[in-house]
Amino acid sequence: MPRILDQRILLLVISFSVSVQTTKVLSKWKKCGDLECEKAMSRVQATTDYSGPDCRYLNFKTGEEIIVYSKLSRENENLWIGSKGKDFGYFPRHAVKVEEVLIGEEVEVLTKETDFLCLHEDKYTFE
Question: Residue ranges of the SH3 domain (predicted)?
């Protein structure tokens, strides 16, 4: 019985690894307010309604406030990452206007594969 359990755990780990590897990386670099990307960078306001293509994206309506925590850089500078209430995700920078800058200097760091997973109610969803 323990051998079957070990095999099931191994299959689960392999499945998780393959899912993470096939997650679409949107950029290898991002800019943040600190090395951990935990500091809010700015407060922005939506200038248009936006509905993203999948669960990694933040949906919003014109006029809603969003807190920006990082911005993809180098190969994809058009996407920023932020939150609105409990919702968190990517959105195009052209869909918002900056209301307030909250940091003095941006730091560029490498992205992680987990940056591109969907998060629903504290659970990761793989694309």
Answer: 39-101
pLDDT tens digits for range 58-87: 999 999 999 999 999 998 899 999 999 999
- What is the H or E stretch that residue 9 is in? helix 2-21
Question: Cβ(93)–Cβ(81) under 8 Å?
Answer: no
The one-letter amino acid code at 68 reads: V
Q: How many CB atoms lie within 10 A of CB 75?
A: 10
Look up the pTM and report it.
0.74
Q: Decide if pLDDT at 40 tops 60.
A: yes
| Cα Rg of the chain, angstroms | 17
CATH classification for the domain delimited by 25-104, as one of 2.30.30.40, 3.10.410.10, 2.30.29.80, 1.10.10.10: 2.30.30.40
Structure tokens belonging to residue 59: 């949906």
